[in-house]
TrEMBL record:
Residues 12-115 form the 2TM domain. This is 2TM domain-containing protein. The chain crosses the membrane at residues 28-49, 69-88. It holds the Pfam family 2TM. It comes from Maribacter algicola. The keyword Transmembrane applies. Keywords: Membrane, Transmembrane, Transmembrane helix.
Length: 121
């Protein structure tokens, strides 16, 4: 009875860890998408804005966009780094372990990994 309770607690701990890793990868995806859009705006890739709107010609707006293209990735990146440190706690040995894999068995492999770690303790 006690062994099954201990296994259940380990399983729940492993599930929590997998959920946190999934949340981190979601955070990373949003970071990449938003910052790519900011770079596109800065590089004037949205030319359809230029001629039609006076606010695009405003130097204050241009300054705000310039600050955001530099400031947002840096400040948000610091937060993302903190998130990564919290989630992975420096347990991973290589970048390959940190790379997201988008296949169905990913969660199962992660759960098994954390269960093995807990069984060693």
């Amino acid at each position: 009875m006690e062994d099954s309770l201990k296994q259940s607690e380990k399983y729940k701990k492993a599930q929590r860890q997998v959920r946190q890793i999934k949340k981190f990868y979601g955070h990373l995806r949003v970071y990449i998408i938003i910052n790519a859009l900011l770079i596109m705006v800065k590089l004037n890739l949205f030319n359809w804005f230029k001629g039609e709107y006076d606010w695009m010609q405003d130097p204050n707006f241009s300054g705000w966009v310039s600050w955001n293209v530099i400031g947002t990735p840096v400040l948000w990146g610091i937060g993302l780094l903190g998130h990564a440190i919290y989630v992975f706690r420096f347990k991973s040995k290589s970048w390959e372990e940190l790379k997201p894999t988008f296949i169905k068995n990913w969660e199962k492999r992660q759960l098994e990994k954390f269960l093995k770690e807990d069984n060693k303790d």
